[in-house]
Amino acid sequence: MNWYNIFNAIEAGLWAIVALVIPFRVPCRTGQQRAATGLACIAFLTFGATDILEIGREGFIPLWLWGLKIACGIAILSSRYTWLGWNKFRLRDRELLFGLFCLIAVGVLILLQRYKEGLTVDTPRAANSQINVLFRIDLS
Q1: Long-range CB contacts (< 8 A, 24+ apart) of 103-107?
Q2: Most exposed residue of 55, 78, 114, 138, measured as fewest CB within 10 angstroms of its CB?
Q3: Please, is 8 exposed, middle or buried when counting C-beta atoms within 10 Å of its C-beta (0-12, 13-18, 19+)?
Q4: What DSSP designation does 26 have?
């Protein structure tokens, strides 16, 4: 097992710990806060699962996995505003700005990965190579 896979396994475990600690450490006084806590737990567990799915991919992350990671980030950010109340939502909140910055960074990483892999255009060959990497199929 290489360092990339070890890091992803450790990261998955840490996200699971966060998800399991939240219900016990966060006092919920309202149904809205309980919903926010539940959303956060599910989002952190799912984010940890995406790290497990990264293991063995040698750094190649398919678009569906990127999409799942982005959805988890949005759910984590949404749980914050669900907890506070959406009336406290401000476009200048540092958490929102940080989340948007991370989203832009992920977009740049996706473009760089696609450029590096030569998969910038959706061609049948590109689709086949993605399927081959996903299922480890050698068609030669």
Answers
A1: 103/70, 103/73, 106/66, 106/69, 106/70
A2: 138
A3: buried
A4: S
Number of C-beta neighbours around residue 78 at 10 A: 16
Q: Quote the pTM value.
A: 0.72
Distance CA 52, CA 107 (A): 21
The distance between the two most distant Cα atoms of the chain, rounded to a whole number of Å, is: 61
* Rounded Cα–Cα distance for residues 72 and 25 (Å): 21
Rounded Cα distance between 130 and 8, Å, is: 21
Give the CA dihedral 41, 103, 54, 23, nearest 10 degrees: -10
Q: What is the pLDDT of residues 74-86, one digit of tens each?
A: 999 899 889 888 8
Provide the residue count of the chain: 140
Q: Where are the domains of the chain?
A: 3-135
Dist CA 58 CA 132 (whole Å): 14
